[in-house]
What does this fold into?
Amino acid sequence: MSARVEPSPVDMPTGESPSTAPASAASASVVAPHDPQVVLEVRDLKTYFFTYDGIVRALDGVNLKVRRGETTGLVGETGCGKSVTAFSITRLIADPPGRIVSGSVRLGSANLLWGLEEEAKFRHDPKTDRVRVRRSFRRIKQANERMGAVRGRRIAMIFQEPSQAMNPVFSISNQISESLLLHRGIEIVDGMLGATLDDPAVDAACEALAEVIANDEPSRLRAACTAVGDAARLPSLGTELYHELRATSLGPEQVSKEIHAMVARRRLSAAERRYLLHRRRLMEADDRARAISMHEMEAGRREARARIAVNNSRRRERLSHFYYGLWGIRSRVRRPLERETFWRTVRLLEGVSIANPVQIARGYPHELSGGMLQRVMIAMALATDPDVLIADEPTTALDVTIQAQILELMRDLKERVGTAIVLITHDLAVIAEVADRVNVMYAGRIVESAPVRELFRRPLHPYSQGLLASIPHLDRPEKELASIPGSVPNLLRPPSGCRFHPRCAYAMPICSKEEPPVTSEGPGHTVACYLYKGPVATD
Ligand SMILES: Nc1ncnc2c1ncn2[C@@H]1O[C@H](COP(=O)(O)OP(=O)(O)O)[C@@H](O)[C@H]1O
Ligand code: SF4
Ligand SMILES: [Mg+2]
It folds into this structure.
């Protein structure tokens, strides 16, 4: 336990002080039935930063729904809290100074904020007017462990600056391989152990491939290589053959030998097989720990005993093979696994339309352009087949032409892979290109939510109208672009009532007094503004 004392601004909410707020949604351990189409649901999310200047209310009651196979846009000016929303969902908020104060984030039936109210206690001292935050680091550590079951595997993220998300000292293939082994290790090892390299069908496919090369038929090369991989039940072998043989100038005899040598390299020695089985057991123990974590978040129950048992078995397993800790032995028996993950990486890079995937996989982050790195990041994010991909300003740092390519790629992936995407951007034009739904965010709140066509046709909130009016139109070059007066407020002392009122042309007396309710103004269209009188949205 540790205490941190920070000065608080005078407006520390007394009625809904953070010490009472978390009790609401986060502790609701019984899972309510939910729409199966909704993969991610954020409810009443509040994230504050406890700074020495006071409390920054970066998110103040954010509600968001992400549906299967849909792209959900989150748009707003810089400083509105879009990135903080993404980081809160993945629980990557730096703590201290940040802390998710209340709310729930549901991924399927699991509440990712489960146990939140146990992690910190807030106490407002009226004498000194300070807020004391007591963090339980044991609970925070447990929550972080639980998030290991989710981050990267079920929710993946890509960022504005891909170079900052990569480690400069490891090659691209190293970094993607690590993620592959962490999240799909068992599947990879099983694939290697189940390969049928000595099947006569493999020999036949190899001969057919040698013939294709001898007859110089490049258009059939890919299919012939894939056939070898399929016969051996090792698809990465097909990829390896294709890339290694593509530029070959060997004679028919040598080519056949070369192909057989490449297939032979994939055979496992007894020691390599033993090492793979050992790795598999470790991965299984890790998977069990993750499964328990998911179960905790789904059922809202504590499974600490089971976790201790799994951790003990994992430790025993590691120690029982101490000789794999010896660098010389490990580096030798690990080679087949490295070869397999390398060629799997190449396959992934092919999937995001990288033309020279082998060269890129061997390269280092600094050698690649921003657009290429962003593709690599997308490949890495999709390697684990996540339920949700959160893309925080994925195209902002890129040239316009590259932007278009990345957006095209995301659209294509949505259709091919079916991952739900949360697209965060300050640019409505990007939203128009890819999103199915739009959530307009202002100063830590969602002020309007609608299907994309509906929002562009009939923006209701004055802020959405302002954002739309500031997009240039090709067909109306003579029209002067409008801008919204003023700037995003400092969230240390956000305006009272509707946070947009100091900048709003339609502001009424009530706007500065009370926060407007969220009303429903058509199918799937909600808005938080006193100008609209629809029924209060219940969802
Ligand atoms: N580490 C931090 N400390 C204090 N305030 C922060 C911190 N990170 C973010 N904020 C506050 O959160 C608000 C939202 O930031 P952010 O989510 O990054 O905006 P954007 O919409 O541009 O992504 C900002 O106004 C900023 O004041
Ligand atoms: S609630 Fe009032 S201040 Fe806020 S956007 Fe609507 S009219 Fe403007
Ligand atoms: Mg941001």
User: Anything to note?
Assistant: Residues 270-299 form the longest helix (30 residues). The pocket of magnesium ion (ligand 3) is lined by residues 82-83, 392-393 (CB under 6 Å). The longest strand covers residues 38-51. Residues 196-265 form one domain.
